[in-house]
Amino acid sequence: MSQATFSVWRSEPGGAGAFKDYTIEISDGMVVLDAVHKIQAEQAPDLACRWNCKAGKCGSCSAEINGKPRLMCMSRLNSIDLTQPVKVEPMRTFPLIKDLVTDVSWNFRVKKGLKKFKPRAADAADGTWRMQQRDIDRVQEFRKCIECFLCQDVCHVLRDHGKHEEFIGPRFFVYSAALEMHPLDTDDRVPDLKQKDNIGYCNITKCCTKVCPEHIHITDNAIIPLKERVVDRFYDPVTRLLRMIGG
Predict the structure, then answer these.
(1) How far apart are CA 180 and CA 116, in angstroms?
(2) Alpha-carbon distance 86 to 100, whole Å?
(3) 77 and 183: one domain?
């Protein structure tokens, strides 16, 4: 057994707050979430923390550890420098509820406003469809998203510029890409991506890809292909000319 110090954000009434240090005994195999639970059990029973599966699949325990958005249950202490206090704080992009818990309901409101899956008519009389495996493989990656919203937290458009009313964020570009590129979907999301979702605000920093715990290639496989569709539709000179001729 050895000791480590954790500097945890503690909120106060009225929106204020400060970091408070807790020193605990740690053992091999512990993750940051274990440390938070130990602090709750031994020193601060009123410390608020959201978690569920402790297996990196529910996305509930999102936080910022030493300034980097991560899942607490997947952040092993043996991969962190313990010679200095480990700073644990809530995601900065969303309103704080208490301590390490943030209000992420904005994300669910955004999702309700996006176009849903709209399949084409069945290919056969028995109601079945036929698809190429390569088309399925293309969108399968996007289905791994656990909606931890770490990509939303690190996105500079939301985090630094507060464009929540104008920009849907990387998580929902992944959601849109999963449908827009689906071989059966018939809806057209390109106008919304440009005019309502403002995909043009994204400047391809790839910070969202770096923090994704499911290792989804958000920028390369979702955002850039969607941007290309928007450019082809609205900015390609030949396409614009044909649209002008055709009304």
Answers:
(1) 10
(2) 14
(3) no
